[in-house]
């Protein structure tokens, strides 16, 4: 979500994703057809809003904000193993104003553990999820997106305040012990949305969002630069990533590549995401990108693209279960293997979907195309497919950790993991 920041996955090159043999996967998302669904998980009372690599393998998840906050709704952090099963969890009660409980949360991995932020509240956890330090910036009560980055001598939190007819952003600096040090505001006169916060190469951060705008902020809160991208679709900027001093921005059905001077180097539009809302982006180990958006209330569209945004393939995936979904993030687990996470629009349940080149989805032929402002490349058309496999019965099971139920589903042989002869390595999947 992310998204929004450089999500350094420490697992690239690992032998497996969720029990899948590396020999069954492709070396690149662009070297294969559309990825198939290897496994789905649901998480009771954990509406996933952010994901990061966990210590010891797997992922750490944190719940999104609650649209109807109350003191009884804590920040929920869970560590899941490589099969998606909850192995550890922590609930943190917030002694902060109501709006701070409404803000979405973000989680990152640190050298010794994790850090979590929601609104202007910040916490540092050890690898066992024990609370080490907290901080709170009073006088500002964000109620929207939150983004978090670790710097050499502390942490930077960006938080969004969404008011009627106006949206603003506050960037907050904390030291490693949670002491509040500085703040900087954006959008006080003209609305600015917060969608991403990225570390830069000079020890600071780059903050920005849709109706694309970007600003560079030094570790002490000093602004280095600020820019907007002219003639860009307004949804571009829902997510971004940085490679050296170049940026890729994405949202809806469009992506932009920016140079070091933040001028537009290339533009892409993806027909397969024409009806998509929002958007999340992940850099892949082959130098390309995975781009995902909601194309229907219960369906996600994914495009795999090369380093200049040209599509390799596109595919739609149904989020199985009752009700509509939110899309929180997409991350690459290893070459040809990815994880998509999100939550239900109603309630506090979350979901994850592991994608792998081990399975070939049942085809539904369509076309994904890409265009630039200077030229249209005929060779960028790619076949689109959609999974229509029969699902196996989803069996609800209890996690070994109280308070977090977890369900799992395996697809059937037509497009699922079992089509290649892989079998679950433990008894938690039915």
- Strand content is over 45%
**Alpha-beta content class:** mainly beta
| Largest sheet descriptor | 6 strands, antiparallel
Number of strands: 34
How many discrete domains? 1
Shape: globular
Average pLDDT, all residues: 78
Helix share bin? under 10%
Find the CATH topology. Answer: Neuraminidase
Radius of gyration: 20 Å
Q: Please name the CATH architecture.
A: 6 Propeller
CATH class (first level) name: Mainly Beta
Distance between the termini: 30 Å
Q: Going across the major beta sheet, what is the strand order? A: 28-29-30-3-34-33
Unreliable segments (pLDDT under 50, ≥5 consecutive)?
1-26, 362-404, 408-430
Name given to the CATH homologous superfamily: TolB, C-terminal domain
Number of helices: 1
Explained architecture:
The strands form eight sheets. Strands 28-29-30-3-34-33 form a six-stranded antiparallel β-sheet, with no helix packed on it. Residues 1-26, 362-404 and 408-430 have low confidence and may be disordered. It has a single domain, classed as 6 Propeller (Neuraminidase). Strand 28 (325-334) and strand 29 (337-344) form a beta hairpin. The longest helix has 5 residues, at 98-102. The protein has one helix and 34 strands. With 430 residues, it is mainly beta. The protein starts with 15 loop residues before the first strand and ends in a 21-residue tail after the last strand. Residues 356-372, 379-400 have a biased composition (Low complexity). This is PGF-CTERM sorting domain-containing protein. It comes from Halorussus caseinilyticus. Residues 350-404 are annotated as: Disordered.
């Amino acid at each position: 979500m992310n998204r929004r920041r450089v999500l350094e996955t420490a697992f690239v090159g690992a032998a497996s994703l969720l029990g899948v043999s590396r020999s069954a996967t492709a070396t690149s998302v662009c070297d294969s057809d559309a990825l198939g669904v290897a496994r789905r998980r649901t998480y009771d009372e954990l509406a996933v809003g952010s994901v990061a690599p966990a210590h010891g393998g797997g992922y750490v998840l944190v719940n999104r904000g609650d649209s109807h906050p109350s003191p009884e709704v804590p920040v929920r952090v869970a560590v899941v193993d490589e099969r998606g099963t909850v192995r550890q969890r922590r609930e943190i009660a917030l002694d902060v104003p109501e709006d701070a409980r409404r803000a979405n949360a973000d989680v990152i991995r640190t050298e010794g553990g994790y850090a979590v932020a929601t609104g202007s509240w910040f916490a540092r956890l050890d690898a066992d999820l024990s609370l080490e330090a907290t901080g709170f910036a009073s006088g500002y009560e964000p109620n929207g997106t939150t983004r978090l980055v670790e710097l050499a001598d502390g942490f930077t939190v960006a938080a969004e305040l969404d008011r009627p007819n106006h949206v603003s952003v506050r960037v907050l600096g904390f030291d490693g012990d949670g002491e509040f040090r500085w703040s900087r505001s954006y959008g006080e006169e003209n609305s600015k949305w917060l969608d991403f916060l990225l570390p830069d190469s000079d020890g600071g951060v780059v903050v920005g969002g849709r109706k694309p705008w970007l600003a560079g902020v030094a570790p002490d809160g000093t602004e280095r630069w600020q820019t907007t991208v002219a003639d860009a679709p307004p949804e571009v900027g829902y997510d971004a990533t940085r490679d050296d001093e170049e940026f890729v921005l994405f949202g809806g059905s469009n992506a932009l590549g920016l140079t070091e001077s933040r001028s537009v180097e290339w533009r892409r539009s993806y027909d397969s995401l024409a009806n998509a809302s929002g958007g999340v982006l992940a850099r892949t180990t082959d130098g390309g990108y995975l781009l995902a958006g909601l194309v229907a209330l219960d369906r996600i569209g994914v495009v795999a693209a090369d380093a200049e945004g040209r599509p390799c393939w596109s595919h739609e995936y149904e989020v199985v279960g009752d009700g509509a979904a939110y899309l929180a993030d997409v991350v690459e687990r290893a070459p040809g293997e990815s994880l998509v996470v999100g939550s239900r629009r109603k309630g506090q349940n979350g979901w994850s979907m592991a994608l792998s080149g081990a399975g070939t989805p049942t085809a539904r032929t369509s076309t994904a195309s890409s265009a630039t402002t200077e030229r249209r490349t005929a060779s960028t058309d790619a076949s689109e497919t959609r999974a229509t496999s029969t699902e196996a019965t989803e069996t609800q099971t209890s996690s070994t950790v109280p308070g977090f139920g977890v369900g799992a589903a395996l697809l059937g042989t037509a497009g699922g993991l079992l089509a290649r002869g892989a079998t679950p390595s433990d008894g938690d999947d039915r």
